[in-house]
Design brief:
- The structure holds two protein chains of two kinds.
- Chain A is built from one helix and six strands; from the N terminus they run H-E-E-E-E-E-E.
- Chain A is α+β, with helices and mostly antiparallel strands.
- Chain A has a six-stranded antiparallel barrel.
- The termini of chain A are far apart.
- Chain B is α+β, with helices and mostly antiparallel strands.
- Chain B has one domain: STM4215-like (2-Layer Sandwich).
- Chain B contains four helices and seven strands; from the N terminus they run H-H-E-E-E-H-E-E-H-E-E.
- Chain B has helices at 4-16, 19-24, 51-56, 103-112, and strands at residues 26-28, 34-36, 38-41, 62-76, 79-90, 142-147, 153-162.
- The chains are: A alpha+beta, B alpha+beta.
- Chain A binds chain B through residues 28, 43-48, 57-59, 61, 75-78, 87, 89-90, 102, 104-106, and chain B through 27, 49, 52-53, 56-60, 90, 92-96, 148-152.
């Protein structure tokens, strides 16, 4: 990894440590649920409930340190935020090891 | 002219009688009870979301039925109203499924699946029944691909149903 990439990795880690929330990631490979940290980002459209609240917003954009998660998240994986179940509908991986997971309530 | 609110509910009821379609839209709620996620939208301020938000927030899987307008005109000697409904689809998570039910399957089930509105398990398909009193059978339905706000695929079908005379 380049120095630039390494610095971005450190930046992502610092931001996630400061602002991240724990979520439960269940990959579809059967390797079992694990806790990861993510930051809920501004959605494409506002909803009537807080993302990850008990009622649960239907669509959540979750920033994660993609390169640090094993196995890497993919379409169809499950993520629970405060007990609300979501499926990974899409993901946008950036060039510096981060990704935005686009989650839809399931 | 018919009140389309009741027809919206009748469309939902009819879609739910298509066994394989209902099965594809069924999930278990928090108590473990099955719930068929085919619902109506009625634009009720204070009760419903705005339609755009309702569509945006549709869970996977689910279908949403919303009246989207009526066209008046002298279509033929006995038809002066054609009512239009949007049928929004969100397929369920297909990960790990040996036989996933995708949008193509959902549309085929919608058009060709046997309804049970007459009480028989293998009734005519939804294109060939009178969904509610005062309505003719629907015009040939259509469906189109769409992208949601996150650029994820979804589909929207359109049912146009002529009214018989002027009720």
């Amino acid at each position: 990894m380049s120095a630039f990439g390494a610095h971005f990795g450190m930046l992502n880690a610092a931001v996630l440590a400061a602002f991240g929330i724990p979520v439960t990631f269940t990959p579809q490979d059967g390797s079992g649920a694990q806790q990861i940290t993510g930051i809920i980002q501004k959605p494409a459209m506002g909803e009537d409930s807080l993302p990850g609240s008990i009622l649960g917003a239907s669509v959540v954009r979750l920033f994660v340190q993609f390169a640090a998660i094993t196995p890497e998240p993919q379409h169809g994986d499950a993520i629970a935020i405060n007990g609300v179940a979501y499926v990974v509908a899409d993901l946008d991986v950036d060039t510096q090891g981060g990704a935005v997971l686009k989650l839809r309530i399931s | 002219m018919l009140n389309t609110s009741a027809v919206t509910d009748a469309i939902v009821t009819t879609l739910k009688t298509i066994a394989d379609l209902a099965a594809a839209m069924t999930v278990l709620d928090v108590t473990g009870a099955p719930v068929v996620r085919i619902t109506a939208f009625h634009y009720l301020l204070g009760q419903d979301h705005r339609l755009a938000e309702a569509v945006y927030g549709m869970p996977a899987p689910s279908m949403l039925v919303a009246w989207e307008g009526s066209k008046g005109g002298n279509f033929d000697g006995q038809t002066i109203w054609k009512h239009r409904w949007g049928i929004y689809y969100r397929m369920g998570n297909a990960a790990g499924l040996a036989v996933p039910v995708g949008y193509e399957d959902l549309w085929a089930l919608t058009c060709n699946g046997a309804t049970a509105v007459t009480g028989a398990a293998t009734g005519p398909n939804i294109r060939n029944i009178q969904i509610a009193d005062g309505l003719d059978i629907m015009d040939t339905p259509s469906i189109d691909h769409a992208l949601d706000e996150d650029l994820v695929d979804r589909f929207k079908a359109v049912f146009i149903i002529p009214e018989i005379g002027d009720n």
